[in-house]
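[job 0417] fold request received: Succinate semialdehyde dehydrogenase
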Amino acid sequence: MSKTYALSDLIRADNFIDGQWVPAASGKRFAVTDPATGERIVEVADSGPADARAATDAAARAFPAWRDALPKERAAVLHRWHDLMIENADELGRLISLEQGKPLAEGRGEVLYGASYVAWFAAEATRVYGDIIPNQQRGKRMTAVKEPVGIVAAITPWNFPLAMIARKIAPALAVGCTVVGKPAEDTPLTALALVLLAHEAGVPAGVLNLITASRENAVPAVADWLADSRVHKITFTGSTAVGKYLARESAGTLKKLSLELGGNAPFIVFDDADLDAAATGLMAAKFRNGGQTCVCPNRVYVQSGVYEKFADLLTTRVAALKVAPATDAAAQIGPMINARAIDKIGQHVDDAVSRGARVLTGGRRLTELGPNYYAPTVLADATKQMQLSCEETFGPVAPLFRFDTEDEAIGAANDTPFGLASYFYSQDVRRIDRVARRLEAGIVGINEGALASEAAPFGGVKESGYGREGSKYGLDDYLSIKYLCQGGLE
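[job 0417] inference complete; emitting structure tokens
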């Protein structure tokens, strides 16, 4: 299937429910703005509980037929959806950059990354196997089969407006679930465009439904799904505080939950590391999307013997980063998502400096570029007393902490309630084995700063959540196991 859209044709402003574009029941709308300029792009539907319920009604009607479709039929639809995403990668990338702010190259890269999950789960759709359990009693046959959990509610963040929702929707549709979804209020346009392409690919009416809601109305809208016993699963990427709220409020109907929550990732540079490689890895891990990812290193621990040399290497590279709007083809760092983000970054840097940190580069707002820009920053002499040691900055700030021993580094790295990603650089094979085993994280980068892959399980431990996205394990959270015992066979 091949069909290309102009950017203007991809921008939709209404909810998508039961195969139709419809306004919010209340008629209310809210503005989506360009973070580079603060200017309004378009006003979209401001949904409430009535819209969430209408989406659930449609998903419930569509579920039996979609569940009973052959896996290869569902796979064919997903393959067509993937092809449309690739065909429209340039314009989708422009849309991501427009509403989220990341540079154009990163926007297009996100499209390809999100599409890889759709292709992966299209293939996995035909590989959902059960088991024949060895006989335990004569005259009985015991089997275990896997079935779709039912209606899935997908709630996604603003920092990857295409990839996060694609890697939730794709496995759900692959196994026969139907979906109701709500993207972040800052970046709903990319998700709406993605649903447009899914419908064009042949996803039947009611199988995939999407509503948009403002910050004020999001909680009442989502609360309807939390209370509705027809919704059997919640999949969410976002803050730990919201994840805990979803877990509490959905407990009344005992929904299945996948929660990919906050992080506070450590990045450890041992004195035997390849420092050039470590600096390259840190640049890739820390400054992707301007530091606005859940796996960005938030605390950089450098062993004393190489601390100053590594700080110099990193500072030179960070100072050379080009900060500009996505419309500048040379941009490497775009605007932050909104004023709240900029305020938090500034607060963290100011607090660190007041407690003794040295600014090696950056450390200021770039108001000459627009309202939401912050200079890529390296801070030396960071300590655990600073806010940025225990709170996720979510911006282009790399604080350098000094350590002396391996035990000290691991203790500091694990001294957090979060456990999503960790990174370390070392050329000592024995140390690599020890540290990899001792780090408390769901994802560990060993001499590598770029971790994401559709073939790898993505998720955390501790207060970074539970469940895994991507890989062969990514279907499990959308399936339930049914045990069948047939007697009277002798």
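[job 0417] notes: The CA atoms of residues 49 and 479 lie 27 Å apart. The two ends are 53 Å apart (CA to CA).
[job 0417] exit 0
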